[in-house]
Write a structure and sequence with these properties.
By secondary structure, the protein is an alpha/beta fold. The chain has helices spanning about 10-20, 35-45, 45-55, 55-80, 105-110, 110-125, 140-145, 165-170, and strands at about 30, 85-90, 130, 150-155, 175. It has a 5-stranded parallel β-sheet with strand order 1-2-3-4-5, covered by helices on one side. Strand 4 (about 150-155), helix 8 and strand 5 form a beta-alpha-beta unit. The protein starts with 10 loop residues before the first helix and ends in an 11-residue tail after the last strand.
Length: about 190
């Protein structure tokens, strides 16, 4: 049995927490909605990546179930907090220190269709979307922009191509960025 978000999300608790946000501050909800990561975890990373190539219909069927869960969970949350939020953070970690974990073409096929559904859903509630992915995702930021993402989080500045100067040169005026603190070496 696939889990039903209605059994786990209390709309009244969501509403209560939304009411706690100071009215003069931006309120951001964090739903995460990491369908790529969860689909990979369902199979195990190596098997999931192999399924993308050898059995894409199996990978896509599991991803669709997980994405459906997140879309329903988000709907419950958005309905309960309607008018209280300004933005939502969603995402999938698809980057390594040197580039995407899978080819940009595979990200476009297996990750961004779900991303687009989540972005469209959030936008239908008037919310800005902050999309999270660790690592170097510079090669797929144009796809995030095309999907309607309003801001990219974080700027993992020491990952290949993710330095602020490069991001500004390539994407100035097209998308916002937030973050920028080194998460790899700062605390060593």
């Amino acid at each position: 049995q696939w889990p039903d978000p209605e059994k786990y999300i209390d709309p009244e608790e969501c509403r209560r927490r939304g009411e706690l946000a100071p009215p003069d501050k931006a309120a951001i909800g964090m739903l995460w909605a990491c369908h790529f990561q969860d689909t990979c975890a369902s199979f195990g990373m190596e098997t999931a990546l192999m399924n993308m190539v050898a059995n894409p219909e199996i990978y896509e069927a599991v991803d669709e179930k997980i994405l459906s869960f997140y879309l329903k969970a988000a709907e419950i949350f958005y309905e309960a907090t309607k008018g209280k939020l300004h933005a939502v953070l969603i995402g999938n970690d698809v980057g390594s220190q040197r580039g995407p974990l899978i080819s940009p073409e595979m990200v476009r096929r297996f990750v961004f269709p779900g991303c687009k559904k989540l972005v469209d859903q959030a936008h239908s509630y008037g919310l800005k979307v902050i999309y999270h992915s660790c690592g170097s995702i510079v090669d797929i930021i144009p796809d995030l922009i095309e999907a309607g993402v309003d801001a990219v989080h974080p700027i993992q500045a020491l990952a290949a191509g993710m330095d602020p100067e490069n991001l500004k040169a390539k994407f100035d005026g097209k998308v916002s960025f937030c973050g920028g603190v080194d998460t790899k070496y700062l605390l060593e």
